[in-house]
């Protein structure tokens, strides 16, 4: 049975990831920079803190997915979490970007506590939100369309943060940079509450499990851990996120310490741009190009199939990423072109990943006779967190290994920053392609799975 989804509901679903993505981009693009250049702790300490807190939190995603699967309210299984936890999400988000008046050790403890709480509340909201696509509709094409809307809105929220944060913090805080960051994040927090509530009110849950028999979390986890295709797709997702995270985390450093101040000719005028202005232009260009890739996803999935389309564009991402190393710091236009090319290529796989986890949910039900939508879709958040964790930690460790010191960058540090922006992400992209080669759930295989599931439904 195909559950058609209205344009209004697709828009409503998209708002949820606009909310999540504003904070996700705060973490992926600015967090390590905030900790080293604003908050006041070392790159290595920040990297270790993020590695420890987020690895533990990534495991919580599976638990949260299982809990969400067992939630039963008049609003459904997954939507209520957007209503219940949107305000705590915003409050803790602001606290994460608040700088206390402590010495470095005290600041580090505060960072551990605030960031751990933020990741926990992010899990509580985002795992049910990610699972929602699996119960809005059962149709793979409709899910791909929903995924495209989701990530278009996600990138919209990300662009808003990337384009405005540094300048907004400067305006709101004046000479007090730490206050400026706190106030700017507060504005994004208010917006996130509004967006989560819009998703709650504009979406509906329709797809019910094939069988209403009760199963334990232990049984669901056993099914998952015996699902080889889940492990393969999880690895693909982790390395894809590492690719994106390394580039986003390195971008501010790359622009500040390699490109520096630039003069850009636009519309007959010469614009003098510092690193904040460059970040506000070039990083959103990458994210905006992601949106083009996202909207190509449905067409490419129909033309090549999800697996082949994913592989092609990750290979393009790999090759283009390598070009960031030899580029001259005076060639701002080549950098702009690369941002567009890599942005489009890296954007297309993201909604495909969401739709492919939908296939994993169907495949798991086909094999076991039990459906665990929340548990399966929690893997998306899990792969994001594992990939983002490794990417951010690598950023911190690479900076530390090349002797990075804020506002006092040596030639060695500059080379490390360039390497971090180009070669290391390319390796991650290559590894995602390797795992895709052994992933077997292509369109013909999934047609067999869906046909047999529909036969079971008709018999019931």
TrEMBL record:
Membrane topology: Multi-pass membrane protein
Gene Ontology MF terms in the entry: symporter activity
Compartments where found: Cell membrane
Gene3D superfamilies the UniProt entry points to: MFS general substrate transporter like domains
Predominant location category: membrane
Keywords for the protein's UniProt record, in alphabetical order: Cell membrane, Membrane, Transmembrane, Transmembrane helix, Transport
SUPFAM superfamilies: MFS general substrate transporter
InterPro entries: MFS_2, MFS_dom, MFS_trans_sf, Na/Gal_symport, Na/Gal_symport_CS
Record's GO cellular component terms: plasma membrane
Residues of the Major facilitator superfamily (MFS) profile domain: 1-441
Pfam family, one: MFS_2
Family label: Belongs to the sodium:galactoside symporter (TC 2.A.2) family.
NCBIfam families: gph
Protein name listed in UniProt: MFS transporter
């Amino acid at each position: 049975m195909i559950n058609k989804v209205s344009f209004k509901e697709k828009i409503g679903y998209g708002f949820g990831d606009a909310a999540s993505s504003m904070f996700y981009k705060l973490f992926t693009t600015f967090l390590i920079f905030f900790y080293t250049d604003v908050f006041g702790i070392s790159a290595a300490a920040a990297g270790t803190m993020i590695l420890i807190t987020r690895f533990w939190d990534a495991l919580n995603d599976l638990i949260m997915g299982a809990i969400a699967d067992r939630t039963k309210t008049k609003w459904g299984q997954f939507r209520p979490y957007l209503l219940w936890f949107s305000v705590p999400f915003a409050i803790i988000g602001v606290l994460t970007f608040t700088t206390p008046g402590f010495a470095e050790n005290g600041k580090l403890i505060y960072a551990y506590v605030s960031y751990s709480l933020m990741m926990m509340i992010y899990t509580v909201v985002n795992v049910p939100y990610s699972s929602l696509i699996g119960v809005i509709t059962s149709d793979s094409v409709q899910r791909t369309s929903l995924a495209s809307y989701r990530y278009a809105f996600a990138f919209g929220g990300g662009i808003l943060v990337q384009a405005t944060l540094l300048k907004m913090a400067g305006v709101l805080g004046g000479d007090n940079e730490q206050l400026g960051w706190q106030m700017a994040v507060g504005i994004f927090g208010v917006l996130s509450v509004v967006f989560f509530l819009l998703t709650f009110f504009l979406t509906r849950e329709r797809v019910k499990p094939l069988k209403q028999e009760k199963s334990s979390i232990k049984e669901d986890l056993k099914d998952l851990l015996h699902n080889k295709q889940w492990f393969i797709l999880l690895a693909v997702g982790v390395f894809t996120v590492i690719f994106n995270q390394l580039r986003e985390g390195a971008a501010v450093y790359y622009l500040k310490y390699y490109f520096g101040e630039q003069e850009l000719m636009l519309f007959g005028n010469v614009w003098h741009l510092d690193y904040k202005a460059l970040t506000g232009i070039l990083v959103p260009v990458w994210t905006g190009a992601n949106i083009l890739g996202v909207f190509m996803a449905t067409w490419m999935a129909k033309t090549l199939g999800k697996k082949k389309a994913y592989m092609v564009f990750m290979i393009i991402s790999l090759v283009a990423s390598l070009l960031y190393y030899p580029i001259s710091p005076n060639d701002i236009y080549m950098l702009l072109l690369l941002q567009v090319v890599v942005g489009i290529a890296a954007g297309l796989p993201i909604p495909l990943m969401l739709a492919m986890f939908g296939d994993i949910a169907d495949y798991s039900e086909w094999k076991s006779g039990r459906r665990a939508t929340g548990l399966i879709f929690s893997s998306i958040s899990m792969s994001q967190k594992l990939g983002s964790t490794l990417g951010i930690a690598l950023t911190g460790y690479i900076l530390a290994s090349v002797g990075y010191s804020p506002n006092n960058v040596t030639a060695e540090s500059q080379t490390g920053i360039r390497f971090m922006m180009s070669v290391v992400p390319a390796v991650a992209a290559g590894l995602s392609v390797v795992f895709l080669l052994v992933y077997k759930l292509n369109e013909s295989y999934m047609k067999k799975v869906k046909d047999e599931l529909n036969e079971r439904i008709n018999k019931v």
